[in-house]
Amino acid sequence: MSEDSIEWNEPRIIEEHYEQSHPRKTWKQILDFFHNKKLLTYLVIILSLSLVGTTTIIVVQNQHIQNLENVVSGENTDLITILEEYEILKDVLEEPLENPVIPTATQVRSWLSTDDTDSFDYVEGVWSCGDFAAMLMTRAKEKNWRVRICVIWFSLEGEDGYGSTTSIYGSGPGHVFNMIECTDGEWYIEPQTDGMWYFTNSITEARTEFQIHRYYDFEDSNSDTLWDTYTIWTNFYGYFG
């Protein structure tokens, strides 16, 4: 046998040995890998968490589907209304008014008679006076009307802060409502009742706004406010919008 043939055959034998032994080594590593008890424990934990996560997602998705079915079947008409209003209001919420229109008081009353802001239920801590006022303000923007939000703190007769010129916030959390400028002056609006009213200076008959440290008698009034049977003492007043 020549030296050339030895040099040729030796690498070939080594190569065949490598190709045969390599798979045996790989399978042994795999078997050792899966016989590791700690790793199997981790795999079980991971699989369990994945199962819990998948189950949670399915439950949440089923709840969303049920909600949508309730909407479609008419069991949640308030939600339908809110969704419809959102589609309308989202285009005007963040856009400033350009050349706002000043309506007549008659136009405002007519609009309020068709607007359903007052039809929603008052729910303390969920949907309250501020939500009514904000809804009416944004809806008025669709007509290019500038409706403002008024904030007032007051005390009723006999309550703490009634008649006080130092008690800023009065006896309660106050109230929120609306104001709009009409062709004949500023009108207040109670969005929960659609009531409209204004104040005049008893001497000059000039239109006036709420003022702090003043009595306002709503007893037997026709303004359809929430204070129709009360005399209120204004501890604080302001508006924006």
Question: Do you know the CATH architecture of the largest domain?
Answer: 2-Layer Sandwich
Spatial order of the strands in the main sheet? 4-3-2-1-8-7
- Give the helix proportion (percent range): 40-55%
CATH fold field value of the largest domain: Beta Polymerase, domain 2
Contiguous uncertain segments of 5+ residues:
1-23
Overall mean confidence score, pLDDT = 75
Number of domains: 2
Structural class: alpha+beta
Question: In angstroms, what separates the terminal alpha carbons?
Answer: 105 Å
Shape: extended
- Give, in order, the helices and strands: HHHHHEEEEEEEE
- Count of distinct strands: 8
Number of helices: 5
Largest sheet: 6 strands, antiparallel
What is the topology?
Blueprint: H1 3-34, H2 37-73, H3 77-89, H4 105-114, H5 129-141, E1 147-156, E2 175-182, E3 185-190, E4 195-197, E5 199-200, E6 207-208, E7 214-217, E8 231-240
Antiparallel strand pairs: 1-2, 1-8, 2-3, 3-4, 5-6, 7-8
